[in-house]
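hey
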């Protein structure tokens, strides 16, 4: 029996575009539920989180896009709404900053706000961050469109006014 070997010469050369098929981009369904917005709003009432948001005057760590990513992460983490605590807000915000910002300073600002100059709690924070990421099955990319969809749920919410572009 003789083996037939396929001829693979110029397999990537395309002479005619009519052989290509185009697929429409499927509309992504949001996994963000109203309860995730409610959890976020509940956490915004926390005095420590309020102090943090007031402290970040230049919105380096808490602009509207990073905050909308917090809601996206809450929707992906799979916790019950009553399980979310202050630490989850800061874990999600740190992760959002990690994903979107090239500069390390904003993330360090979160640590400075939470722990001052002490480095004692940072290893535990990173361990919790890793667990949080795992709970989302490593799905940590949030598109700008998803952020805008999250903001559109309640467009008049005061937190969506935290726009870096508007700061002089």
């Amino acid at each position: 029996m003789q083996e037939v070997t396929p001829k693979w010469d110029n397999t990537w050369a395309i002479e005619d575009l009519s052989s290509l098929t185009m697929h429409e981009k499927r509309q992504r369904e949001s996994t963000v539920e109203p309860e995730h917005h409610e959890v976020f709003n509940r956490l915004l009432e926390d005095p420590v989180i309020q102090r943090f948001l007031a402290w970040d005057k230049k919105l380096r760590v808490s602009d509207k896009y990073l905050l909308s990513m917090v809601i996206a992460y809450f929707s992906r983490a799979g916790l019950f709404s009553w399980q979310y605590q202050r630490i989850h807000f800061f874990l999600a915000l740190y992760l959002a900053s990690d994903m979107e910002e090239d500069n390390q300073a904003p993330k360090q600002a979160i640590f400075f706000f939470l722990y001052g100059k002490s480095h004692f709690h940072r290893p535990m924070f990173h361990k919790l961050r890793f667990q949080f990421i795992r709970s989302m099955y490593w799905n940590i990319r949030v598109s700008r469109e998803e952020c805008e969809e999250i903001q559109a749920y309640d467009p008049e919410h005061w937190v969506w006014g935290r726009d870096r572009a508007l700061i002089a």
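Residues 8-14, 16-29 have pLDDT under 50 and may be disordered. The two ends are 78 Å apart (CA to CA).
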